Amino acid sequence: MLLADHVLTVGTYPLKLIPDIYCRASWRSEALANHISLPRLIDMDWRVDIKTSSDNINRMAVPTCLLQMKIQDDATICQNKPTISTVSLELSKEKLDTMLDGLGRIRDQLSAVANK
């Protein structure tokens, strides 16, 4: 079954909306053709901090998650000398919940593929 393409007009420019399955296939073939490799997670560290503030009206104590990830770039892109960079994030409880929900979906999809 072929899925029909859709056209969306933004201003005066028509944009062709291609079904997601075609985009993934196109991206995968383009990545393989160009030997693209994404950065890899090397290490991760985290901690929970409490942001505090006070004034005459309010007192605030908000928990936040500080996340630090070490990322290694593809060696072929870096002339066979892979570089490691550090990415630091500060996440509120709500943002962390959103991130964990997304990671849970990824885990479930990987498990489904691995069980086939």
Protein topology:
Blueprint: E1 6-10, E2 13-17, H1 20-33, E3 40-54, E4 59-72, E5 84-92, H2 93-114
Antiparallel strand pairs: 1-2, 3-4, 4-5
How would you sum up this structure, described in words?
This protein starts with 5 loop residues before the first strand and ends with a helix. A hairpin with a 2-residue loop joins strand 1 and strand 2. The strands form 2 sheets. The protein has a 3-stranded antiparallel sheet. The N terminus is likely disordered. It is an alpha+beta fold and 116 residues long. The protein contains 2 helices and 5 strands.
- DSSP helix count? 2
Q: What global shape is seen?
A: extended
Order of helices and strands: EEHEEEH
What is the first-to-last residue Cα distance? 22 Å
What is the count of β-strands? 5
Radius of gyration: 21 Å
Q: How big a fraction of the residues is strand? A: 35-45%
Q: Biggest sheet, open or closed, and with what strands and sense?
A: 3 strands, antiparallel
Strand order of the largest sheet: 3-4-5
- Quaternary organization: single chain
Unreliable runs: 1-11, 13-18
Q: Determine the fraction of residues in helical runs and give it as a percent range.
A: 25-40%
What is this structure, in a nutshell?
The strands form two sheets. The protein has a three-stranded antiparallel β-sheet with strand order 3-4-5. A two-stranded antiparallel ribbon has the order 1-2. The protein has helices at residues 20-33, 93-114; strands spanning 6-10, 13-17, 40-54, 59-72, 84-92. The protein is built from two helices and five strands.
